[in-house]
Amino acid sequence: MSNKEKEIVRKDRRSFLSVLPLGVLGVVGASLTIAAKRSLEPHTVAAADEGWKSLGDVAEIAGEEPIEKTIAVTCRSGWSKTVEDVSVYVLPKHDNKVLSSVCPHEGCPIVWDADSKNFLCPCHDSFFSDEGQRLTGPAAKDLTEYETRVENGKLQIKV
């Protein structure tokens, strides 16, 4: 190999070694950007655990009073996942309509008041009918209704 050829090989090697750190920094920067985006991106319950959850046999859901049921829902926050129990109310009197147990005003848990036959938010005294419609109080809208279906004799809600 001539001196001229050796000099070309050295220059090629030097140019490669001068570009290599930039490539490594680019890969590290892209990885950090993707990690930051994933950890800061908000995730909703529905997005974290899409699908149908069973509330029990339709044949066992009966009566005039709402029935409180609990389901396990997977929640994501960044890279971590947690399983939380969420309460819902099944309304046998209203074709097994299913309502959220969370007040739309500020997220307090609602309770069924058997004396008045209404749902009550004890935090700020919002009242809702036995179908979940807002009656009085600071809540601006009705209780959230879940989409339901019956599959193999089981009442299911979409979360």
Explain what you see:
It is a single chain. With 159 residues, this protein is α+β, with helices and mostly antiparallel strands. The protein folds into two domains: 1-41; 45-158, Rieske [2Fe-2S] iron-sulphur domain (Rieske Iron-sulfur Protein, 3-layer Sandwich). Helix content is 26%, strand content 36%. The chain is built from two helices and eleven strands, in the order ααβββββββββββ. It has helices spanning 3-40, 45-48; strands spanning 52-57, 67-77, 80-91, 97-100, 111-113, 118-121, 126-128, 134-136, 145-146, 148-151, 154-158. Strands 2-3-4-9 form a four-stranded antiparallel sheet, with no helix packed on it. It has a four-stranded antiparallel sheet with strand order 5-6-7-8, with no helix packed on it. A hairpin with a 2-residue loop joins strand 10 and strand 11 (154-158). The protein is elongated. It starts with a helix and ends with a strand. The relative contact order is 0.15.
The major sheet is characterized as: 4 strands, antiparallel
Indicate the CATH class of the largest domain: Mainly Beta
Query: β content, as a range?
Result: 35-45%
Fraction of residues in H or I helices: 25-40%
Class of secondary structure makeup: alpha+beta
Total of domains: 2
Element pattern in H and E: HHEEEEEEEEEEE
Q: Which strand order spans the largest sheet, edge to edge or round the barrel?
A: 2-3-4-9
Q: How many runs of DSSP E, i.e. beta strands? A: 11
CATH topology of the largest domain, which one? Rieske Iron-sulfur Protein
Low-confidence sequence ranges: 44-49
Summed over residues and divided by their number, the pLDDT gives a mean of 83
The 3D shape can be described as: elongated
**What gap, in angstroms, lies between the N and C termini?**
71 Å
Q: Look at the structure and name the CATH superfamily of the largest domain.
A: Rieske [2Fe-2S] iron-sulphur domain
CATH architecture of the largest domain: 3-layer Sandwich
Total DSSP helices: 2
Rounded radius of gyration (Å): 29 Å
